[in-house]
């Protein structure tokens, strides 16, 4: 009997100990750990685009980049049947309720207003100058200058101006720059994070090409496949033919046998196809004019939604991070939210923003932005323009007018055309129209992170004879990188 009790007690003790031990283990697991979290392996967003340096800037001024040799029209079969002038117009994302035609042009109500619309009369002299309050990034935020009433500068967008162009009678509101709220990473950090954004481009293009070329002697079918791969990646017929010819020559001449050798040849040929003698630095640094400091003036142009505002903001960040002072001109008065968007970029980067009322004359806003830039002796004025492309005439009127009006005060040093890489051939058609309208000096190719068709770079540069200067690799504020042919080809090939 006593031994039975003995064993019962022993069993109870064992059960008790087991319950205690498991309870402790469970409690331990649930406890919040304050230890250093394990390093989560950062998955790169894509392949391997890694620029070897930061974005380079050059002073503006007289020297203009070499426009390069224009591509002969006969070599442009890839653009046959592409959208013509004006076909690419897209309705701004957030302004479905409004169009150019809907904007009524009010009759001048007073003699003064009527006078302001007279071409010969400089509007600036008819208006009091905007408050000459310096707005450096470090300055504390002050209340915005009161918005001036509407005037003759209002919806000039609805009526294409006749030549000679009326100078603007702007009513832009000069916004003081608040304290920058964002810490801007040094260039090297940004480049690290840009590593690997071209995965989609890489997977299709590089792998299939290397698969074909690495297989030894190629028969005609295989060469046809090489051509198809290049065409599918948006390199265009002329560039494709050129590249295939060079590949045939080089592979034969060097008696390439291994896939590594084939890769090297492919890299060389593609990089050579992207090289240009034109300067890739962005002319966004000040220069001297008549013994005075003159801000560099950069116009950012492109069709709706390509990323103009985003690129303008990103560029301002890079400049400010390098110690430059920047004024942003919100001359995209067509899309309601564009000025707000730019304002936010300005606030985050530490740049003043000059904006007009919605529907105001873009040239008036651009004029005032440059005026403020000169008054405040800043280093660069970046003007975000509207991207309407309803008709070539409309575009000419607007963009041409912006440039002419700005150049009454300062030379435009850089005209950056923003193209959305995901639109492929359509981007090329847009580029052609813009190049006819305005003297484009550099291309920014955005959304390369979202396309398998990075090949548009080859065509755009070849056809326009204008260098691709920058690439957009994401929506983030630091996702802007200098364009480097070698790095780009490496990213494509993986
Ligand atoms: N993935 C990706 N998105 C981008 C890039 N650049 C811009 N975007 C996005 O593209 C969209 C359009 O950009 P915006 O800067 O507003 O374009 P916009 O040309 O100023 O447009 P409008 O004002 O309508 O003329 C936004 O959602 C941006 O975040 C890029 O390099 N990569």
UniProtKB/TrEMBL annotation:
Any GO MF annotation of the entry: signal recognition particle binding
Question: Into which EC class is this enzyme placed?
Answer: hydrolase
**Spans of biased composition, class Low complexity?**
117-160
Catalyzes what? GTP + H2O = GDP + phosphate + H(+)
Enzyme Commission identifier(s): 3.6.5.4
What segments bear the compositional bias annotation Basic and acidic residues? Answer: 63-79
Q: Residue spans with biased composition (Pro residues)? A: 161-179
Where is it localised?
Answer: Cell membrane; Cytoplasm
Task: Report the GO terms under cellular component.
Answer: cytoplasm; plasma membrane
Transmembrane found in the keyword field? yes
Q: Offer one Pfam family short name for this entry.
A: SRP54_N
State the UniProt keywords alphabetically.
Cell membrane, Cytoplasm, GTP-binding, Hydrolase, Membrane, Nucleotide-binding, Receptor, Transmembrane, Transmembrane helix
**Where the protein is mainly located, per its record?**
membrane
SRP54-type proteins GTP-binding domain residues: 467-480
Protein family membership: Belongs to the GTP-binding SRP family. FtsY subfamily.
So what does this one do? Involved in targeting and insertion of nascent membrane proteins into the cytoplasmic membrane. Acts as a receptor for the complex formed by the signal recognition particle (SRP) and the ribosome-nascent chain (RNC).
Entry protein name: Signal recognition particle receptor FtsY
- Give the species this sequence originates from: Amycolatopsis panacis
């Amino acid at each position: 009997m006593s031994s039975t009790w003995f064993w019962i007690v022993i069993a109870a003790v064992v059960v008790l100990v087991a319950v205690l031990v498991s309870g402790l283990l469970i409690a331990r697991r649930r406890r919040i750990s304050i230890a250093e979290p394990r390093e989560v392996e950062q998955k790169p967003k894509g392949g391997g685009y890694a620029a070897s340096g930061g974005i380079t800037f050059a002073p503006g001024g007289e020297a203009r980049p070499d426009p390069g040799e224009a591509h002969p029209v006969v070599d442009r079969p890839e653009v046959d049947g592409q959208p013509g002038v004006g076909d690419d117009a897209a309705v701004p994302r957030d302004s479905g309720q409004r169009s150019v035609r809907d904007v009524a042009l009010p009759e001048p109500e007073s003699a003064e207003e009527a006078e302001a619309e007279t071409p010969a009369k400089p509007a600036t002299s008819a208006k009091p100058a905007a408050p000459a309050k310096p707005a450096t990034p470090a300055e504390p935020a002050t209340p915005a200058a009161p918005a001036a009433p509407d005037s003759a500068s209002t919806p000039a967008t609805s009526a294409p101006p006749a030549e000679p162009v009326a100078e603007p009678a702007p009513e832009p509101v000069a916004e003081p720059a608040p304290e920058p709220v964002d810490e801007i990473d040094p260039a090297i950090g940004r480049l690290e994070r840009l590593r690997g954004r071209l995965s989609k481009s890489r997977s299709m293009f590089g792998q299939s090409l290397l698969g074909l070329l690495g297989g030894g002697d190629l028969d005609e079918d295989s060469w046809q496949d090489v051509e198809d791969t290049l065409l599918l990646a948006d390199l265009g017929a002329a560039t494709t033919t050129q590249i295939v010819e060079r590949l045939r020559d080089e592979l034969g001449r060097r008696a390439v046998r291994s896939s590594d050798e084939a890769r090297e040849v492919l890299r060389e040929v593609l990089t050579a196809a992207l090289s240009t003698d034109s300067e890739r630095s962005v002319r966004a640094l000040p220069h001297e004019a008549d013994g005075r400091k003159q801000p560099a003036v950069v116009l950012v142009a492109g069709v709706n939604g390509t990323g103009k505002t985003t690129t303008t903001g990103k560029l301002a960040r890079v400049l400010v991070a390098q110690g430059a002072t920047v004024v942003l001109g919100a001359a995209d008065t067509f899309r309601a939210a564009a000025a707000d968007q730019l304002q936010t970029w300005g606030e985050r980067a530490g740049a003043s923003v000059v904006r007009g009322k919605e529907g105001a004359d873009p040239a008036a806003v651009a004029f005032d932005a440059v005026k403020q830039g000169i008054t405040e002796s800043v280093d660069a004025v970046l003007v975000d323009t509207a991207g309407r492309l309803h008709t070539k005439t409309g575009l000419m009127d607007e963009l041409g007018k912006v440039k002419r009006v700005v150049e009454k005060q300062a030379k435009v040093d850089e005209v950056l055309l923003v193209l959305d890489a995901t639109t492929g051939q359509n981007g090329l058609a847009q580029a052609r129209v813009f190049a006819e309208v305005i003297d484009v000096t550099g291309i920014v190719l955005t959304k390369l992170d979202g396309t398998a068709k990075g090949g548009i770079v080859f065509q755009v540069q070849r056809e326009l004879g204008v260098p691709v200067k920058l690439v957009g690799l994401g929506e983030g504020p630091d996702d802007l990188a200098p364009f480097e042919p070698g790095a780009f080809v490496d990213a494509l090939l993986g």
